[in-house]
Amino acid sequence: MKNLHKALILSSAIFAANSQAEITLNGFASIVGGVTTSSDDTLYGYDQDIDFSQGSLFAIQASADLGDSLTATVQLLARGENDWDPDFEWAYIAYDASDNLRVLAGRQRVPFYMYSDFLDVSYAYPWITPPEGVYSVAFDTFDGLGAIYSTSMGSFDANFHMIYGGNNSEITVAGETVKPDFIDSMGLVATITRDWLTLRTGYLQTEMNIPLQGTQPLIQGWQAAGFDSVANDINVMKDTGSFLEFGFQIDYNNWLVIGEYTELNLDGTILPNQDSFYVLAGYRFDNMLVHVTYGEDDDARDRVTENVPVVDQLLPLLVPTNGLSDSQKNQASYINLGLRWDFHDSAALKFEYMSYSDDLNSNNDAGLFRTALVAVF
Amino acid sequence: MNKFFKTSICSTLLISSFCYADIAVVVNHENNSVLSDSDISRLFLGKLKKFTSGGKAVAINLKLGSDTRNEFETKVLGKSASQIKAYWSKRVFSGKGKPPPELVSDKDVLSMVASDNNMIAYVDAASVDDSVKVVKVF
Fold this sequence. Notes:
Largest sheet of chain B: 4 strands, mixed
Helix content of chain A: 10-25%
Mean pLDDT of chain A: 91
Oligomer: heterodimer
Shape of chain B: globular
CATH architecture of chain B: 3-Layer(aba) Sandwich
Structural class of chain A: mainly beta
CATH superfamily of chain B: Periplasmic binding protein-like II
Distance between the termini of chain B: 18 Å
Helix content of chain B: 25-40%
CATH topology of chain B: D-Maltodextrin-Binding Protein, domain 2
Mean pLDDT of chain B: 84
Radius of gyration of chain B: 16 Å
Order of helices and strands of chain A: HEEEEEEEEEEEHHEEEEHEEE
Strand content of chain A: over 45%
Number of strands of chain B: 6
Largest sheet of chain A: 16 strands, antiparallel, barrel
Low-confidence stretches of chain A: 10-19
Structural class of chain B: alpha/beta
CATH class of chain B: Alpha Beta
Number of helices of chain A: 4
Strand order of the largest sheet of chain B: 2-5-1-6
Strand content of chain B: 15-25%
């Protein structure tokens, strides 16, 4: 009798202990509207015409428990800005080698940032989207292996995440859509949590091959002029890019303080090195969270022509090359005010206003108002 | 006295949702683990997967929206329902874990815990019977 009762409970609760390939469906969505506050401002793709497709997305995740500690998971994500064409953001088989160790094989997120693993799940964090200035690496998934080791040391929970793999999905770099080849991508991320405090650090690196068409005339020009080293410094081929991150989160009573600092090093290419950080402070009133974020971005690329003699016949190459290096420079800061209202068990409304200042060119200063309805299901 | 005070507030203000019941955390009678408040919270957050005795631990939740669950999440996990939902969203969509399975009623929970010594769950303290062992009342 007791067994029968248990069986009934189990089947009604879709409790997937021993049954074969139980499939769990989950999903998340963001509907985001954005508009700049003055007619000639543009920021992150928004302008004075209110837009609802840019930041909007829908995703569905199916996960099948195959038994014997194996799970297969796919996550399909459709973005408004890509005409709602769905992409596989995650597609992996996970194996729980022990209670502490999970190994993932397949397509997964590169754990660059504190919120990378659930980058598009707006319900999981305060903002509509994490600060764009910091969250700016041109790609966010890879194909390969990941290992997540979790353990406790006293009252500390520690989590180590290692990855190895590569990626050749199309990206947009310097305004050009290009098919890159990232190989030997590897990294280690450590996260330590105790009660209300989380600390995180990560280091990742990859070999980069990004055949930017726009730079080919300069590369060929310098090669023809006998300056192979300058050509190599422009070209993004067999160069190593590295990335360092430090992050923290304090969630104490009703206070929330979050910060991240990142350094992207792309030496040996014409692409800029980027240092950036943000700090958020927030306070929860019942089901409302008010928050303010301040952040700075600093991008720069030294001129690659320092060892080139300034002679007339090289000027047609020197001028555009120096112009290209100099144009990579960016110094900006922003303040973002936000409100998150958890009006429903599975959904929240968010309102944000960002004031963005370009420290090098005040014509790029902009104000951006965004609102979002976000949900998980 | 305390209880009297609580009851009188409830009756005078007639705000029944403010009158919380006690929550009992329960395990199987064969489970002799000693669990701290932090252990209990980490078991239900999927951070701890074994009892102190070494046995595999499986936490059971009540359905989303149940008063007992809201009370448990506030008192024991120290989070609101939406904070817990956000916590599990992070884990579910990043391949790090999935939330405890949900059962509909205290009765279902009790019979499940009574029949399986890996289970840990919580119910309204008033529903507890002899079939399970109470680890702690919050």
